[in-house]
Amino acid sequence: MKYILHSYRRCPFCIRVRIMMHLKGVPYEVVEEPLRAWTKWLQEWAEKNGERPRVPLLRIVAEDGSETVIPESDDINIFLDTHHGSREYIPDEGTGEYQEMQTWLAWCADELKPMIDLYKYGEQLQFDPEKHIAHTAALRQRVEKLELQLTGHSFLVDERLTLADIAVIPFIRQIMRTREGEFDFTDFPKVEAWTRALIETEWFKEEVMKKYPLAPEGE
Ligand SMILES: N[C@@H](CCC(=O)N[C@@H](CS)C(=O)NCC(=O)O)C(=O)O
């Protein structure tokens, strides 16, 4: 069996998956997608499945050449954690911790990510310095929520690294890298330390953020 990950280096959803690949010690090939041009394989898959081409997407290629495709980052990570050794990053289903993890995943998708988009790009991708003040304030409220959780806790759930941390940290990294670190983390020391503890490791810099040549678009 072989794994092929269609990915885009800076995409936070893809970073989630590459973190999990590293943590589980899973070898994989990367197809570095030319974002919005896309490879022919991804275009054809999307067309066949009535979906938009998007990354990340994991192809699981069996010995006989048959393929299973998983397109969503959280689903890919649940698959990887469940199918490689013992489950380490997902609390047992039915527990309060599992529920908390799901709540953070939904919060990241519904509350944090849309706010980062507004902060980074503006409404309808029109950056407006006036509105940016309100967007920054709203994003600070989201980060404050993380700060409160991380005050007295080392991780978001269960005092250990779970899928929740793996899902959210790439988005905090994205905030840190927007407009050369304009977002002020002084009031959010726990969030900053929690993020940096992961993204400043050698494995993160060298494996997760490894540069791959862009796959030729349309091929
Ligand atoms: N819910 C998806 C979101 C993936 C996603 O939005 N990826 C972005 C790249 S960061 C993308 O492919 N955008 C292209 C598009 O939506 O057209 C996941 O968790 O995997």
End-to-end Cα distance: 23 Å
Question: How large, in whole angstroms, is the Cα Rg?
Answer: 18 Å
Write down the CATH topology of the largest domain. Answer: Glutathione S-transferase Yfyf (Class Pi), Chain A, domain 2
- The percent of residues in helical segments reads 40-55%
Biggest beta sheet summary? 4 strands, mixed
Low-confidence parts:
none
Structural class: alpha+beta
Protein name: Glutathione S-transferase
Domain GST N-terminal: 1-88
Domain GST C-terminal: 94-217
Pfam families: GST_C, GST_N_2
What does this protein look like?
- With 219 residues, the chain is α+β, with helices and mostly antiparallel strands.
- It folds into two domains: 2-88, 3-Layer(aba) Sandwich (Glutaredoxin), CATH 3.40.30; 96-202, Up-down Bundle (Glutathione S-transferase Yfyf (Class Pi), Chain A, domain 2), CATH 1.20.1050.
- It is 52% helix and 9% strand.
- The protein has eight helices and four strands.
- The protein has helices spanning 12-24, 40-48, 73-83, 96-121, 129-150, 163-177, 189-199, 202-208; strands at 2-7, 29-32, 57-61, 67-70.
- The protein has a four-stranded mixed β-sheet with strand order 2-1-3-4.
- The two termini are 23 Å apart.
- The model has no long low-confidence stretch (mean pLDDT 96).
- The structure holds glutathione.
- The site of glutathione has 10 residues, from helix 3.
- This is Glutathione S-transferase.
- Residues 94-217 form the GST C-terminal domain.
- It comes from Candidatus Kaiserbacteria bacterium CG10_big_fil_rev_8_21_14_0_10_47_16.
- InterPro entries: Glutathione-S-Trfase_C-like, Glutathione-S-Trfase_C_sf, Glutathione_S-Trfase, Glutathione_S-Trfase_N, GST_C, Thioredoxin-like_sf.
- Residues 1-88 form the GST N-terminal domain.
